[in-house]
Amino acid sequence: MDTLRQILLIVHLLGFAALFGGLVVQAGSQFKLVNGAMRDGAGTAVLAGLALVGVLEAGDTGVNHAKVGVKLVIGLVILVLVMANLRKERIPQGLWVGLILLSVANVAVAVLWSSAHG
User: How far apart are CA 114 and CA 118, in angstroms?
Assistant: First the structure.
């Protein structure tokens, strides 16, 4: 079960990396858009995160449901914003910045809201 947990964690992190990379690669561009990396990364991160929680629930590891809920809400907001703007030629600068801030906030919740650090 621990191997499955680790694999899901890696897939979850790779999903975030694709989302964040798809955002950051556009930093120098005048016009921003939702690209495939953002779409696939957001979806992968959410689905792998849900599967990871399922594996943790099935095992002996305790799950912080409040933390999971906050991360899920942020992840779903990102996913909805990405999917809603997928076919648009460009997205507003504010939306692009918002997606970056939401992505960083989700990582901050994951890292800072943990009993291992307290």
Answer: 7
